[in-house]
Amino acid sequence: NADTHIIPEDVSDIIPEIDIPSSKNSFSLKPLIEINDWLDNESLNMVNTIPILINIKLWKISGTMIGPNSLTTSKNWSFIEDSWSGRIFQFNIEDVLKDCPNLRRINRSENHWKDIDGLKSSLKPLLDFRKKEKTIEGIDKVKSTMLEWWRVDVNSLKLESEYAYIPAWILNFEDGGKKILHSRNGKTYDYEI
After folding, report:
1. How much is the pLDDT for 43?
2. Residue 149 and residue 66: Cα distance in Å, rounded?
3. DSSP three-state, residue 64
4. Are the beta carbons of 143 and 90 closer than 8 angstroms?
5. Strands of 27-125, DSSP E
């Protein structure tokens, strides 16, 4: 199954406590595309671009994992909700831009974000994982490793969010049209202001 997360026993418990910048000092994720390369690839050299920041949410999550024989363990995670792309992905401190630029910020209204129940439902497959539990030695002396499921207790999840940002550009076309170019996925989105 492509959705199965297999985490070796020796790394399953080392999601580090991450020193996330506080909301007083907003942070931005690093861009993954270069604007001039993107414009060249799209043959859009005559488009006027304005750098901006678009908002995302950083979710700090804690909850209980339930393993084999009803064993439980507490876990903490950090995930990014990107309402522009519709994605939720694990936050990595190495993706943070060292200095958040002082640019115009475009904030999506609350109706673009998942509600708590929808967010929990989206997180469940991201949090469940299989873990190496024990080695079984059969009659023929062949050792095999058992991978056993650890599943999140969705009702135990506690979620806190704060806004963060992703660099982007407003694309001003010659015909007066405008789009927002997302710097992490290279896709354009409607300019909704």
Report:
1. 86
2. 8
3. strand
4. no
5. 48-66, 72-82, 87-90, 105-106
Q: Which residue(s) pair with 162 in the sheet?
A: 58
Residue type, 67: G
Q: Do residues 189 and 84 touch, judged by C-beta distance below 8 A? A: yes
Structure tokens at 103: 């640019």
Q: How far apart are CA 164 and CA 21, in angstroms?
A: 9
Residue 72: closest CA among 135, 169, 156, 177 = 156
Q: How far apart are alpha carbons 164 and 43 in whole angstroms?
A: 31
pTM of the predicted model, to two decimals? 0.76
Higher-scoring residue by pLDDT: 43, 23: 43
In what helix (H) or strand (E) does residue 172 lie, and over which residues does it extend? strand 158-172
Residue 8 Cα distances to 1, 5, 84, 116, 148, angstroms: 17, 10, 33, 30, 11
CA atoms within 13 A on the CB side of 114: 23
Any bridge partners for residue 57, and if so which?
81, 163
